[in-house]
Write a structure and sequence with these properties.
Elements: H1 26-41, E1 46-48, E2 58-63, E3 66-79, E4 82-88, E5 91-100, E6 103-109, E7 115-121, H2 122-135, H3 140-143, H4 149-163
Antiparallel strand pairs: 1-2, 2-3, 3-6, 4-5, 6-7
The structure holds zinc ion.
Length: 164
């Protein structure tokens, strides 16, 4: 296992569409292992291929004591909606509210090519959506709901007080 560098917002790689995995070999296993160690190093709850500079449809989520590797993930069903704050290893120092489905069902393959589906609610659903967006060149800041002016002022004041 090795750590890989996290690609940050502004890098064109994050805006490209990732390619489907067709070969399940040692190289894929190495990529997944490296992504996991990189994600854990930076305390992430999820990571996607483009975030380590690899435009392949691979995602890891690590949330609610659930560690999942998803190869070629695809949302096949979604229900409801929730709004919560998100952050991203590739967009440091930014947090913002994003509307996501409350529940999603995702079809994917494991590192050996076996098919499975997973249904997740709330944070797991949110995390799956966020990571799968990365595979399509979409960042959470694209979907971020703009806070009302009043809230922004409040937050700024708070930050200023903290700094001084
Ligand atoms: Zn992200």
């Amino acid at each position: 296992m090795a750590y890989r560098e996290i690609v940050k917002e502004g890098d064109a790689i994050l805006r490209k569409k990732s390619k489907e995995i067709k070969i399940f070999d040692d190289k894929l296993e190495e990529l997944l292992d490296d992504m996991a160690s990189t994600m854990l190093k930076y305390n992430g709850v999820g990571i996607a291929g483009p975030q380590v500079g690899v435009l392949k449809r691979v995602v890891i989520v690590n949330i609610n004591n659930l560690f999942l590797e998803l190869v070629n993930p695809e949302i096949i069903n979604q229900q409801g909606q929730t709004i919560e704050k998100e952050a991203c290893l590739s967009v440091p120092n930014v947090m913002g509210k994003v509307k996501r489905p409350k529940q999603v069902t995702v079809k994917a393959q494991d590192r050996y090519g076996n098919n499975f589906t997973i249904t997740g609610e709330n944070w797991l659903a949110r995390c799956l959506c966020h990571e799968i967006d990365h595979l399509n060149g979409i960042l959470f800041i694209d979907k971020m709901i703009k806070e009302e002016k009043k809230d922004n002022n409040k937050e700024n004041k708070h930050c200023n007080n903290k700094d001084s």
